[in-house]
Amino acid sequence: MNRREEMLRLLGRRERQGLSLKALALESGVPAGTLGFWAWKLLQETLRPSPSSDATCTAFVELVPGPDDRAAETGRMEIVLAGGRRVVVHDDVDEDRLVRLVRALERC
Hints:
Layout: H1 3-17, H2 21-28, H3 32-47, H4 70-74, E1 76-80, E2 86-90, H5 95-107
Antiparallel strand pairs: 1-2
Helix pairs in contact: 1-3, 2-3
């Protein structure tokens, strides 16, 4: 596994479990400053697609069921952004509108 994949895995776990960088650093042995740098770097990649990629394509993210399964019953999904903001949308939301919304919120 390369360093980028390792950081994606660690930071994904951080978001899913709600860990602070300090707590993740203690668990993983990776310095908090390194984790913070990679969190910033990976966020920048999602905000600015590379010139070789399709401008409308976003990075793949892992979708995991949350603790509240009622969202699936109601046809909604909740998105937790890197800054901690939460967006709840219907699961049939227009993909292009959702991408524009998330990008705008991430810039705030």
